[in-house]
Amino acid sequence: MTTVTAISSVSASSSQDSERASERRGLDRRRGERRLRRPLGEPLIVFRDIWKRFGSTVIYEGLDLVVHKGETITIVGGSGTGKSVLLKCLLGLIAPEKGSIKAFGEEVTGLGERQMRPVRARIGMLFQGAALFDSLSVFDNVAYPLRQHGWNDPSTISARVSEVLEMVNLPGIEAKWPAELSGGMKKRVGLARAIAIEPEVLLYDEPTTGLDPTNVKRIDQLIIDLQERLGVTSIVVTHDMDSAFRVSDRLAMLYERRIVWTGFKDEVEVAEDPVVRAFIEGNIGE
Question: Parallel, antiparallel, or unpaired: how do β-strands 57-68 and 43-54 relate?
């Protein structure tokens, strides 16, 4: 072998190794930090044959989804497919025309406002954009659900507010106002408010929308940490696939008014369903 041939061979081999390493990094990044599957718990929230429309626009046609206790499941799909509507149906803010939603073993479709209160007391939600009250301080924003659910002792409320702000890595900002916070900080305050009532279920509506890459990873890590620390069941709605892979145990694909595929995140990379492949590869529009 000539010197030129040897150099070319080494260079080609090095390039192939580099490409394979890059592919592995991409898979690792998408699959996230948690490598091992956790066994699924018992069904905690069950959507069966859900139908919903707004005027002439059909949102769901016979949608089915089972959420298991202790898991983080992410609902993915293009913009306008009705991902966030499903969370609002669970909370009783929007009523489906047909179908059944069971939470904690109880049928919640058709319940009135007063009947829904005990159900909502077991569910926390991080709204898209955080939805902080501009006229309230950080302290009062986080304390708001506590007071709504009957917490009256000022010292107990103060201790809980401090505790949950510490959990989201924002200690000592109780006196600040929403206008003084960055986008990432607002999201974390919204998350502190969501976990203040010690919920069993956390709902995340587009938790990373509008954030820079550093804050996206920070929010993703908080979702993972809180699930592991608090043992909550989490439902995440997003169209950000990198974020979905980082935080999820399982993913559910919403397309054409139904959940067309569910599976563990390591199964997505080898999924043969053409709709799943198209979305993962970016061939279904946002």
Answer: antiparallel
Buried b (16+ CB within 10 A) or exposed e, 49-80: ebebeeeeeebbeebbbbbbbbbbbbbbbeee
Q: Please answer whether residues 29 and 245 qualify as being in contact, where contact means their C-beta atoms are separated by less than 8 angstroms.
A: yes
Reported as a single tens digit per residue, the pLDDT across 53-111 is 999 999 999 999 999 999 999 998 877 788 999 999 999 999 999 999 999 999 999 89
Q: Is the pTM of this model over 0.85?
A: no
d(C-alpha 266, C-alpha 173), whole Å: 39
Distance CA 94, CA 112 (A): 12
Separation between Cα atoms, residue 4 and residue 7, nearest integer Å: 5
Half-sphere exposure of 159 (CA within 13 A, CB side): 6
- The closest alpha carbon to 260, from 274, 246, 250, 247, belongs to 274
Tokens representing 254?
């919403």
Which regions in the chain score pLDDT beneath 50? 3-33, 35, 286
**CA pair distance 100, 229, nearest whole angstrom:** 31
Rounded to the nearest 5 degrees, what angle is found at the Cα of 132, between the Cα atoms of 214 and 112?
Answer: 125
In terms of Cα–Cα distance, which of 236, 234, 280, 276 is closest to 256? 276
Q: Which two tokens stand for residue 40?
A: 């699924």
Residue among 178, 183, 132, 140 at smallest CA distance from 161: 140
User: Hey, what are 204's tokens?
Assistant: 């995340």
Task: Report the alpha-carbon distance of residue 253 to residue 8 in Å, rounded.
Answer: 45
